[in-house]
Design brief:
This protein is α+β, with helices and mostly antiparallel strands. The protein has a single domain, classed as 2-Layer Sandwich (Beta-Lactamase). 46% of the residues lie in helices and 26% in strands. Strands 2-1-5-4-3 form a five-stranded antiparallel sheet. The longest helix has 54 residues.
Length: 146
């Protein structure tokens, strides 16, 4: 069977091509909508989890002091695949946590921060993006949870 170029000029072919285009755009739009909504939902859930953890640690600090949250942060930061934790003193020196130091983006700011993070995967280090919440505790301590 040979290709007949006259078929491209028929109204049946044109209607089928238009239908295909409309269908492809519709499917693409639906997939984009689902993707963006899912990504937004995951981000909101992650942020809510981090906020709840920061609040729980801050409450624990108010009740038990620094010693009260050091053990908790040490345990949670040691978990494989866990979150990002850091308790630092007023000079930014690490007291406990799985971050080596306060990220430079944090200086003099509290709230949400996004920063690059090098993580060890097997033999290799990979740079990833991390999202965390930074807050100041009483007595000039800093808490970062992500």
């Amino acid at each position: 069977m040979q290709f007949n170029p006259k078929i491209l000029k028929t109204s049946t072919f044109r209607l089928a091509a238009i239908y295909l285009l409309v269908f492809a755009v519709s499917v693409g739009s639906i997939l984009a909508y689902v993707f963006w909504n899912t990504a937004g939902l995951l981000e909101r859930q992650t942020d809510a989890t981090i906020r709840a953890e920061v609040q729980a640690l801050a409450d624990q600090y108010r009740l038990l002091g620094l010693r009260g949250i050091v053990d908790t942060v040490q345990r949670r930061s040691a978990e494989r695949g866990g979150g990002v934790y850091l308790i630092a003193d007023a000079n930014g020196k690490r007291i406990v946590g799985n971050l080596e130091s306060v990220p430079p983006q944090v200086i003099d700011e509290t709230g949400w921060i996004d920063f690059p993070l090098d993580i060890q995967i097997g033999e290799n280090k990979q740079r990833r993006s991390a999202r965390a919440f930074h807050t100041d505790l009483k007595d000039d301590y800093e808490l970062i949870v992500g």
